[in-house]
């Protein structure tokens, strides 16, 4: 006799670590390998954030504030809303998993676009729901009309990733507004805005105005990307108090640790630093996208901190392998739902040059 595990485990996608195998491969090849595989910020946190972590470290014999009051207050102040509308989490992925558990039963449906964020396919198998994937439309952009057509009485959760990972494409807030209007009020809509700071079409807080009108809307944000705190795991949702209570009911207390709370509370005070990171990213985006086109690659129109490129005749596996040999870790498209493509995160200028040179050598 041996132990057996839940049947649903068979349906959960095989785990592809975020700090991907390709990264390990690249490191094995060259000690100075660069990581352009996980959409992290190439810049360390603000020095004041590191100080805040050091100060908080002295008190970690105590449990953190289970309600993360200081952090939720700081986030609420920043977005000019109420702390009651802020749910914080151990990375924003925790909110996605908790939302699936809190919203869905057997037979319910979870609707999202594809290719989109690699965590979404975990949700339905975890909670026994059925997943409906709607292919991206022209230009790798969400097909919102197509998604609306798939909404049924069973659709408990609908996710729109904007800008979309892995394609970087952005839907303007005006389109999001009319889309949210069209979705029935019984369906929870999660707008995953992990990269919203990086886009320059709209003020990143435009979508906040929709929250007041639509209690079924959840905006998902993270400190992992442009705030540079991926290693600490802090995310948050701007949501109704009911949604916050629901996700709290299905996850452990104290999910955001003391160092993470202190760091994020400090990080959100430094909006000048965020603006600086965003500006640097825009400069790299323009540069990398232009060079990629010069090299003959078609790319999706990125409004994020990464490019999604069509490899054309090149073999995806060989390209990833060769880049790894040159010490550049990127993400192959196949596990992300886009065979024949590559996702590359923007690093510093020298890092981006190294990627472009290594890619150029293959064409
Ligand atoms: C990186 C990312 C997140 C953030 O995940 P965390 O758990 O907050 O680190 C959320 N959504 C998308 C689409 C992402 O790419």
Order of helices and strands: HEHHEHEHEHEHEHEEHHHEEHEEEH
Structural class: alpha/beta
CATH-level-2 architecture of the largest domain: 3-Layer(aba) Sandwich
What's the pLDDT, averaged over the residues?
95
Helix content class: 25-40%
Quote the distance from N terminus to C terminus.
55 Å
Q: How many structurally independent domains?
A: 2
How would you characterize the overall build of this protein?
The protein is built from 13 helices and 13 strands. The mean pLDDT is 95. It has helices spanning 21-29, 47-57, 69-79, 92-103, 120-127, 144-149, 173-182, 208-213, 241-249, 258-267, 271-294, 316-325, 349-360, and strands spanning 34-35, 86-89, 109-114, 130-135, 155-161, 188-192, 217-222, 235-238, 298-299, 306-310, 328-329, 331-332, 341-345. The chain is α/β, with parallel strands linked by helices and 363 residues long. Helices cover 38% and strands 15% of the residues. The radius of gyration is 20 Å and the shape is globular. The strands form three sheets. It has a seven-stranded mixed beta sheet, with helices on both faces. α5 (120-127) links the parallel β3 (109-114) and β4 (130-135). It folds into two domains: 16-44 and 272-360, Aspartate Aminotransferase, domain 1 (Alpha-Beta Complex), CATH 3.90.1150.10; 47-269, Type I PLP-dependent aspartate aminotransferase-like (Major domain) (Aspartate Aminotransferase, domain 2, 3-Layer(aba) Sandwich). It starts with 20 loop residues before the first helix and ends with a helix. The protein binds pyridoxal-5'-phosphate. Pyridoxal-5'-phosphate binds at residues 39, 91-93, 117, 161, 165, 192, 194, 222, 224-225, 230, 235.
